[in-house]
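PROTEIN DESIGN WORKSHEET
SECTION A - STRUCTURE
LENGTH: 661
TOKENS:
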């Protein structure tokens, strides 16, 4: 399937520029093949693949970012290399002053132009204003070198039998000086421009750094190839032709290919939306051109002949299936897996591997974005009243995403938001059908997650109600039943004084008083079991101060005040800290223990010690109890332990549950 793309005037001009470059690059090989030569891979790389790669990247950048300086530089480089090589090839077969002159300097100028994009990637600007003098100096020397190559007097390099028609003998001295300085100055330029890329990489944001890593890799590859050849020459070792040509081929096309890969994989310059058709048709063009030349060369002659007709017929037969096959490969690389069955199977496998329902929305968003090669995807799960229950986003979500409702059994459970691959680019009908099918499957998982959340919320309400009821019951027992029993005990004690002459009644009153005192003790134990008394007497902060004051090594860090807390949160915070401090005192062998309470949207309690930790040992009942107390309120407990200490942190939500990832 070919994705529709509308080329504007600039895009059509850029496409024509690439077509001209491709025509010149192929034309440069025709005279060699006609003369019976077998070009080496290094020659094919520098004469065909390098200009095509540079021109393709340049044309695409021009089409999508007309003001970006890298596009014209790459396009001009590719066109110059192709023009110079074609002129040189024809000058060797049919010597002429014009083709010989063009072949002697144009391709070298194009190769030099390839260096300058290093200063401008990825955003089209210099690293800073301080680089302007270097750019002016490098551009000036490069211009002088190009002019010097064009007006050097004497025989033409491409046609030694002919003199340079534009040679200036009077400037032979300055020209010789410029050309003698070329190796040193160009070497310095390469090093400085590579340093510019490394400097950008060091200062760049993570996404831009991943983009620049491809350019860094291509620069390292180029340097490695140079070092291999230098070392081989110093040792007097002759590399095999295949190895030497292969290394040279990788070196010369490394930068354009690295830029293309950065565009494809990291959306550099926002132009990857047009790469699919361009790559597919570019690959078809290269394959069919090679097939045509191979058939014609093998069957004989490049003139109009039966061989040409056979080649043309073979190309026509191969074109359609080859285009479809290459387009499918390119689409899968650029836009990900589009086969519904494979995509659904992969999504099912990812969900099947999950243990916690909390991870479902994030896994779904990641799976959709990565599998379809989208900039970002977001799964929103809604409560029954329409409020947002969970949000999980993967990647970068644009301001105007494509939204698909998630419905299960006719009830809306959320939505799936996906970013377009490029601004203004719409999904095809097939992709929209695929996304709709995905939304149906995702809705099932979203419904399960919502039911799980509702169950948790119900449990949390039960816990809160239970603790509130315990607080009320403790208050009633402490303030009502307790004082009445105490008054009854006092009445019995005072009544015994009037029963001195009735020892039987005095004994009965004494026994009854014992029962009352025993009941009071039982009541006190029951009240303490319902809720720590210090919480009602001192509040959470005061209760924690009282608890920590019993231990010399404990340092307490508390806020000045806390907002009103539910009974469940107070009890959970107190019990978790009490259990954690008790564990430190019993098992950690610590010299210091820090207890802290902080308040933001949630209540966060933390205990940290400098003991020996408990890595490798199984967590006990106390640790499990702390975790359950946090989770039954919708919170979480995290434990970090090592040989230098342990940190336990509990986060207790104050309001509704929030799930944003």
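SECTION B - SEQUENCE
RESIDUE ASSIGNMENT:
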């Amino acid at each position: 399937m070919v994705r529709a793309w509308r080329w504007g005037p600039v895009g059509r001009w850029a496409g024509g520029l690439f077509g001209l470059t491709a025509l010149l690059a192929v034309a440069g090989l025709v005279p060699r093949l006609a003369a019976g030569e077998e070009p080496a891979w290094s020659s094919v790389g520098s004469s065909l693949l390098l200009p095509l790669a540079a021109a393709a990247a340049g044309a695409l950048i021009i089409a999508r970012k007309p003001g970006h300086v890298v596009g014209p530089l790459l396009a001009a480089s590719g066109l110059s290399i192709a023009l110079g090589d074609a002129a040189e090839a024809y000058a060797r077969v049919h010597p002429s002053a014009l083709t010989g002159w063009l072949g002697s300097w144009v391709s070298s100028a194009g190769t030099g132009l390839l260096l300058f994009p290093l200063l401008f990637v990825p955003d089209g600007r210099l690293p800073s204003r301080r680089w302007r003098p270097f750019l002016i100096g490098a551009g000036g020397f490069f211009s002088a070198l190009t002019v010097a190559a064009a007006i050097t007097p004497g025989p033409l390099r491409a046609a030694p039998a002919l003199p340079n028609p534009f040679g200036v003998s009077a400037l032979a001295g300055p020209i010789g000086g410029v050309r003698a300085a070329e190796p040193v100055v160009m070497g310095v330029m390469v090093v400085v421009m590579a340093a510019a890329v490394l400097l950008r990489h060091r200062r760049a944001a993570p996404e831009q750094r991943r983009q620049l890593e491809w350019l860094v890799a291509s620069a390292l590859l180029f340097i490695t190839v140079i070092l291999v050849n230098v070392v081989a020459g110093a040792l007097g070792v002759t590399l095999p032709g295949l190895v030497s040509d292969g290394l040279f081929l990788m070196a010369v096309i490394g930068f354009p290919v690295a830029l293309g890969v950065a565009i494809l994989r990291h959306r550099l310059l926002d132009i990857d939306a047009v790469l699919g058709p361009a790559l597919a048709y570019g690959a078809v063009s290269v394959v069919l051109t090679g097939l045509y030349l191979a058939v014609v060369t093998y069957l004989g002659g490049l003139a109009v002949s039966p061989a040409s007709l056979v080649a043309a017929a073979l190309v026509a037969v191969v074109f359609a299936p080859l285009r479809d096959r290459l387009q499918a490969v390119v689409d899968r690389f650029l836009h990900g897996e589009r086969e519904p069955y494979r995509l659904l199977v992969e999504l099912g496998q990812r969900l099947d591997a999950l243990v916690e329902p909390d991870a479902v929305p994030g896994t779904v968003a990641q799976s959709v974005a990565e599998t379809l090669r989208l900039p970002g995807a977001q799964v929103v799960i809604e409560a029954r009243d329409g409020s947002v229950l969970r949000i999980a986003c993967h990647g970068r979500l644009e301001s105007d995403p494509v939204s698909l409702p998630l419905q299960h059994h006719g009830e809306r459970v959320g939505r799936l938001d996906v970013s377009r691959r490029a601004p203004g680019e719409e999904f095809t009908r097939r992709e929209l059908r695929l996304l709709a099918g995905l939304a149906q499957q995702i809705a099932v998982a979203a419904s399960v997650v919502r039911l799980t959340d509702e169950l948790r919320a119900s449990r949390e309400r039960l816990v809160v109600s239970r603790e509130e009821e315990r607080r009320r019951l403790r208050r009633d027992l402490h303030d009502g039943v307790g004082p009445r029993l105490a008054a009854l005990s006092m009445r019995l004690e005072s009544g015994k004084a009037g029963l001195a002459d009735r020892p039987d009644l005095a004994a009965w009153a004494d026994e009854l008083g014992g029962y009352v005192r025993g009941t009071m003790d039982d009541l006190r134990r029951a009240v303490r079991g319902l809720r720590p008394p210090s919480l009602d007497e001192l509040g959470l902060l005061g209760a924690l101060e009282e608890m920590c004051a019993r231990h010399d090594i404990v340092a307490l860090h508390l806020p000045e005040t806390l907002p009103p807390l539910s009974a469940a949160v107070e009890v959970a915070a107190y019990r978790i800290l009490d259990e954690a401090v008790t564990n430190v005192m019993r098992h950690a062998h610590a010299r210091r223990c820090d207890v802290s309470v902080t308040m933001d949207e949630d209540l966060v309690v933390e205990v940290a010690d400098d003991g020996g930790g408990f890595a490798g040992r199984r967590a006990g009942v106390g640790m499990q109890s702390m975790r359950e107390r946090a989770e039954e309120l919708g919170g979480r407990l995290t434990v970090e332990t090592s040989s230098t200490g342990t940190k336990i942190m509990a986060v207790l939500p104050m309001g509704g549950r929030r799930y944003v990832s």
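SECTION C - NOTES
The longest strand covers residues 645-653.
The first helix runs from residue 9 to 34.
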